[in-house]
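Hi all, long-time lurker, first post. I run a small reading group and we've been trying to get comfortable going from sequence to structure in the token notation. Rather than ask abstract questions, I figured I'd post a concrete chain and ask someone more experienced to write out its structure so we can walk through it together at our next meeting. Sequence below, copied exactly:
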Amino acid sequence: MSQAETDVWLSRVFHAPSSPALAGTYDEWAGSYESDMLAVGYLHPAVASGFVGRHVTELDGRILDAGVGTGLLGHVLSILGYSKLVGIDISEGMLARASARGVYSDLRNRALGEKLDFEDKSFSAIVSTGVFTAGHAPPSAFEELVRITRPGGHLIFSVGKGGWESGGFREKLEGLEAARRCRPLVITEPYAPMPFSATEAAATARMFVYEVL
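-- Answer (accepted) --
Happy to help. Here is the structure in token form:
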């Protein structure tokens, strides 16, 4: 698929009018999603994998891939030796692709921003890339992500520039820091996660690493 066609898909997901519409669009896109995103130089999975390798030292710790998509991130983490991977996503089509990789022990259709059916302190790390952006998961999702991460565990996630500046993510994370529920370890400089996209090349995001307290 051409980069121009990928941009059409990106426009559809960024402007989906509802969560069911968003899930349906990702269901339609699942078959070509990975190759399409690689065509626009999608960087988030590589950046996030690097930070997992740097900060998550327990290879047998339970890791949640929140917004699993086709499971590309989990595939990379499994190569690095991480063996207890769990994934959630709103799209059954994406979950089917992730399941076919054979690296996740548990995959569930769940939405960030809603109550998650995991016990408190269930995970040593949670990784979420490309989800805290236009039309996707809300800042309130961090309440649940912090709840289900053990003390000393890590949240590794990307946030788009717009979401950080005016979408409530800065305020939400600063509130969690003030309540001493988590603290930032790394905040990257802004980078373009889709540098070869005609419509998104100028859009920037940052990758964050937080420690849960």
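A couple of things your group might point at:
The first helix runs from residue 3 to 14.
The chain has a mean pLDDT of 94.
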